[in-house]
Amino acid sequence: MRGPSTGDHFSLAEEALAQIQKLYAVEKAARPLSPEDRQQYRAQHAKPLWDTLQTWLAIHRPGVPPQSALGRALAYLANEWDKLVVYLTDGRIPIDNNADNAVNGISRVIPRHGLFRVTVQRCDFAADRGSMARPVAA
């Protein structure tokens, strides 16, 4: 049986990045709330997204060669999971303290051309905070 093709890896990277971008959309909506309300909002809206991402990671990580760029990014995501989700426990903690390398690693495996290009428009909701979802340079 043949392993996943490079195109499969790009699709997986885009899936992960899209899920993380949804987390930032939740965070943007929660920004004006008090820390207590922000924590409750995150529990209701962000926690299910993290749960989905964790399931996705468990399903797809075994099929990605660990030495590939995506494999290293997924290993980082798995190994740093507890640090990445700690913000869910306290509305005062920002989403992107510990997550920078996870998305940067995933976004680097997406080619800078064609349909897989990560654009500023797709990351604009996070850009105003200098967050982890930085676009790949063209």
Automatic annotation (TrEMBL):
It comes from the Bacteria. InterPro entries: Transposase-related, Transposase_IS66_central. Residues 11-99 form the Transposase IS66 central domain. PANTHER family: BLL1576 PROTEIN (PTHR33678:SF1). This is Transposase IS66 central domain-containing protein.
